[in-house]
Structures are given as C-alpha cells and as structure tokens.
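## retry 2 of 3
previous attempt timed out at serialization; input unchanged, resubmitting
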Amino acid sequence: MMETRSIMIVGVGGQGTLLASRVIGSVLLTGGYDVKVSEVHGMSQRGGSVVTYVRYGDKVASPIIEKGQADLIISFELLEAARWVSYLKKGGKIITNTQQIEPMPVITGAVKYPENIVENIKAAGVDITAADALSLAVEAGTPKAVNVVLMGMVSKTVSFDEQVWLDALKQCVPPKVLDVNLKAFELGRGIA
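## retry succeeded, writing output
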C-alpha cells in the first residue's frame, strides 16, 4: 500500500503549467497509480498566479492539497516558490526556475520584488533546487519550453524510467515542437 503523494505546480499564467500537469499525470498513470489533478486555481490569464495540484497513490480521494502536505513543489517562477512554501511537508522538495516575472504590485511600484529568495528558503531548512530554466529553454530552441526543462529536472526526483517521461512528452506535446521539447527535457535532466 502506497501512501498518497502530492505535487504542486505553481507559476504565472502563460508559463505552461497545464502541459506540465498533463505530462506528470501521464507518467503517473503509466506507473499504475490512481491520479487526481485539480483544475487551475487563480488568475490563469498571463501574469496571474496559477496553481495545479497532482495527487497520486493506490487510491486518491481528492486532488486538493492543504498546507504542509506537498511532497514536491514545482515552481515556474521564483516568487511563486516563496508564496507556496508553506504547503511543503517536512522533508519535501522544491524545484524552481530562477526566472522573475514581476507581479502587478511590483510593476506599479507598490512593493519591491523580494531579494535572496532561494537563499532564504534554504536558510529555513528547505531542500530547494533552483535553475535558470528559461536560459536552458532558449538553448533548446524556444523560451516556451521552460515547463519541459522543469519536467526534466522533476524526472530525476519522481523516479520513473526516462522512457516513460519521453513517451508522456510525445503524447502531450504537438509533433511540430517535439524535438525542441525533447532537447529541453534532456537539458533539465542534465542539471537536476
């Protein structure tokens, strides 16, 4: 009997969090788990905070993740990692992109974008892996592949055979952009 595990995917609208949740869901279903994926919460328009919950195990009742329950938080944007860190369980892990997308209060000058986010999260005793997924996505051929770079990083944490991940990408990514996304995935795996 496997206890239910919880993954949160957090980011900003327009970053491809939905594709990421579809890829992870596909991998977990292939692994034979009961999988529940929540709808996106928050402002899914470009720029608003977006959250997707993925829960898996032998039998999953609800996709909802409460504070202190997430085994893994995948953050597409640095401030989102800080915003959702309270949802991480003790011994959980955060994988984050170091990209900074200024929210409206920062753009309007009401507040400053926080500094030293990764260092502060580490100082709180949290296992966090941070990488410039945007640069790697550009290296792969498109800035839109940040999500797949992060999936490459996640594939080293959520341990399934690499081929299962590649098959999930082939299912979820349009054929015309598959090659770029496969390259992005490999670059993400390389830094994990």
